[in-house]
Structure formats: structure tokens, C-alpha cells
Amino acid sequence: MIAAFYLVVLAFFLWKKKDRSFLRVSFWSVGLLLLLSPTFHYWYLSWLTPFLAFFPNPAWLWLTGAIMLSQEILIDFSRYGQWEEKGWIKILEFFPFYLLLFRDYFKRRG
User: pTM for this one?
Assistant: First the structure.
């Protein structure tokens, strides 16, 4: 189901976008794949960082920096042996990311 959604969204962007360069399509394809992935480890963003040299998108730049907050989990794990993610960390990482992503989308559209 997610693979079908991925292909539909990718086809939509290929159809709508004026700039269909291989590099730009690859950038958004990798980004979409990361967002639809059920597991999101911080090192997965290393697949996207080379594209940021060509397309410095504020949302993806935020996420590549803020994702390091996810390593906060290691503090409690090293002290108490508890592996428990904190919701406020995820909000701090991803809420600004999605705000910047949607702002950029609507700015380009308008």
C-alpha cells in the first residue's frame, strides 16, 4: 500500500513539476522514501545530504540538524538501561520540519 502511494505521489510530482531534472527528482524521491519509511534512523538522512548541496531546502536542512536530538535516548539508556523515546523530542524534530516543508510548498505554489 505504501509502495503504491509512493509511486502515485512521485508520478504526481513528475507530472506537475516544470523542472524534471534527474537530480531534483532523485532528491524528492529519496526524501519521500524516508518520510514513508516505517523506521527512521538518523543515519538514513546521509542518503539525502548530498542533494542538499544542490537544493538547500530549509525543511530538510532543519531535519538533518535536529535529528541529532534523537540521540537523547542514550542518556537514560546508559544510566538506567531504559530505552524510551520521548514524544517532545519527536515534536521538536519533526513539527518544524513539516511546517517548513508545507510553507515552502505553498510559497512555490502561490
Answer: 0.81
pLDDT digits (tens, 9 = 90+) for 48-72: 999 999 999 999 999 999 999 999 9
Domain contains 65: yes
Helices (H), the chain: 2-16, 22-36, 49-52, 58-66, 73-80, 87-109
Tell me the residue range of the domain where 88 lies.
57-110
Counting the structural domains of the chain, the total is 1
| Pairwise CA distance, residues 27 & 51, whole Å | 6
Give per-residue burial for 82-104: e unless 16+ CB within 10 Å, then b.
Answer: eeeeeeeeeeebbeebeebbeee
Q: Is residue 37 part of a domain?
A: no
